[in-house]
Amino acid sequence: MPVTINNFTFIETSIKDVFIIEPRKYGDDRGYFMETYKESDFRQAGLDYVFIQDNQSKSKKGVLRGLRFQKTFPQAKLAWNR
Questions:
Q1: What pLDDT is attached to residue 10?
Q2: Cβ contact 34:26 at 8 Å
Q3: Beta-carbon count within 10 A of 38 CB
Q4: What CA–CA distances, in Å, run from 44 to 4, 8, 38?
Q5: Alpha carbon of 46 to those of 20, 33, 54, 69: distances in Å?
Q6: Closest by Cα among 50, 53, 25, 48 to 38
Q7: pLDDT value for 5
Q8: pLDDT (tens digit, 9 = 90+) per residue, 40-67?
Q9: Which pairing describes strands 8-12 and 26-28: parallel, antiparallel, or unpaired?
Q10: DSSP conformation letters of 22-71
Q11: Which of 32, 60, 74, 82 has the fewest Cβ atoms nearer than 10 Å?
Q12: Do the Cβ atoms of 46 and 5 come closer than 8 Å?
């Protein structure tokens, strides 16, 4: 039975300890953003890993967003151009 916790739906498979994890994707005409991992949500689903958070976004050519300095709760940002 699927379990939805915040931005993730966790679906248990018939294989022990194997789950299908569907992240919620937020999109508009510029592209999309989604969390692909968040420790607290995965732990609440019973998946206890040591990895804090991962986000993913894709923007159309010419769109630049999400770059800012964060003094409190700093985050590393990785951007690339294909």
A1: 94
A2: yes
A3: 19
A4: 10, 11, 10
A5: 13, 25, 18, 33
A6: 53
A7: 94
A8: 898 999 988 777 677 777 788 888 766 6
A9: unpaired
A10: EE--EEETTEEEEEEEEHHHHHHTT---S--EEEEEEE-TT--------S
A11: 82
A12: no
- Lookup result for tokens 């894709």: 58
Contacts 24+ apart (CB under 8 A), 16-25: 19/45, 19/47
> Can you say whether residue 40 is alpha, beta or left, with left for phi > 0 and alpha for psi between -120 and 50 degrees?
alpha
CA 31 to chain centre: 15
Taking the C-alpha atoms of residue 31 and residue 63, their distance in angstroms, rounded to an integer, is 9
Whole-angstrom distance, CA of residue 33 vs CA of residue 42:
19
Residue type, 40: S
- Specify whether the CB–CB gap between 15 and 38 falls below 8 A: no
Query: Measured between alpha carbons, how far is 43 from 49 in angstroms, rounded to an integer?
Result: 7
